[in-house]
Design goal:
Length: about 230
C-alpha cells in the first residue's frame, strides 16, 4: 500500500524549492537548449547520449567506486541530514519508506565514458528529505557522504531537482549492494559521480566544499551535456 503523503512535508518542500527556483532555472540542464536533461522524453531530436559517452550494452551496468563495498542492510541503514538546518534529521529504512515514493526513468552518465540509458528508479526525492530538515536561509550547498568514506558536493539547486532521488530500487529490483544498495543518491542531470552510493549523510553548508573527485581534478559542476568533466583552473 502506498504510504500516506504528509501535507506538511509537501508544503515545506514547495517553500524550499521556491527559494531556489531562480537558481534552478539558471542551471545548465534547465537553461541550455541542448541540455534538456535525460530520459526518453528529453532525448528527442538530440544525440542519444552526451558527447564522449557510449551507451552500455543492454543489461550491462558497470560498477565504479573506491573498491570498498560496505555492508549496509535495511536494518543498519541510517541517513543523517546535518549542518545548516533547523532540524537535524535521522531516517532509518522504515522512515524513508514512509515518505512519498516516486518512480522515474532516467539516464546514468559515468565520466569514464559509459552511459546506462533508461534506468527505472524507485525512491524518495532528495527534496522531500531536505524539506524535513528545514535548511537555514543561509544554506546553499551540501556534501554527501557514503559509508565507504566517499564524498561529493552539490549546490542545493541541483539537489532539489525532481529527478534527484534516494533510490532503493532499480529496474524493479532492490538496489544491489555493488551499486550502492540499499540506498544511493542519483543525479541524472549530472555525471554519476555526484550520486553517492551507500549514502549515510547529507551535510548542509553555507559555503561550498569539494568532495573526493572534485578535489582530484574533476569538475565542480559536472554537466554531461556541456562535456564538463574536469576542473579547468
Ligand atoms: N559511496 C560512493 N559513491 C559513489 C562512488 C564511490 O566510489 N563511492 N563512485 C561514483 C562514481 S565515479 C560513479 S560513476 C557512480 C557509479 O555507480 P555504479 O557503481 O552503480 O555504476 O557512483 C558514484 N558514487
Ligand atoms: Mo564515475
Amino acid at each position: 500500500m502506498a504510504p500516506k503523503v504528509d501535507e506538511r512535508v509537501l508544503e515545506a518542500r514547495a517553500r524550499l524549492r521556491a527559494r531556489f527556483l531562480e537558481r534552478m532555472r539558471e542551471t545548465a540542464s534547465v537553461a541550455d537548449r541542448d541540455a534538456q536533461g535525460t530520459g526518453p522524453p528529453n532525448r528527442h531530436g538530440m544525440p542519444r547520449v552526451p558527447v564522449g559517452q557510449t551507451p552500455t550494452a543492454p543489461g550491462k551496468w558497470p560498477v565504479l567506486d573506491l573498491g570498498v563495498s560496505p555492508n549496509v542492510t535495511p536494518e543498519s541503514f541510517e541517513l543523517r541530514v546535518t549542518g545548516a538546518c533547523r532540524r537535524e534529521t535521522r531516517l532509518g529504512w522504515v522512515d524513508l519508506l514512509g515518505l512519498e515514493t516516486v518512480e522515474d526513468t532516467s539516464d546514468f552518465h559515468c565520466v569514464t565514458g559509459w552511459s546506462k540509458l533508461d534506468i527505472r528508479w524507485q525512491g524518495v526525492r532528495v527534496s522531500t528529505v531536505l524539506a524535513l530538515a528545514e535548511p537555514r536561509e543561509t544554506a546553499r550547498f551540501a556534501v554527501c557522504h557514503g559509508s565507504d568514506g566517499y564524498t561529493t558536493n552539490l549546490p542545493l539547486e541541483e539537489l532539489l531537482k525532481d529527478d534527484v532521488l534516494l533510490a532503493h530500487h532499480a529496474d524493479g529490483a532492490p538496489l544491489p549492494r555493488a551499486h550502492g544498495g540499499p540506498v544511493r543518491m542519483i543525479t541524472p542531470q549530472l555525471y554519476a559521480w555526484k550520486g553517492t552510493k551507500w549514502i549515510c549523510a547529507i551535510e548542509l553548508r553555507d559555503t561550498d566544499a569539494k568532495g573526493f573527485w572534485e578535489r582530484n581534478g574533476y569538475s565542480n559542476t559536472a554537466y554531461p551535456w556541456r562535456n564538463d568533466r574536469y576542473d579547468d583552473d
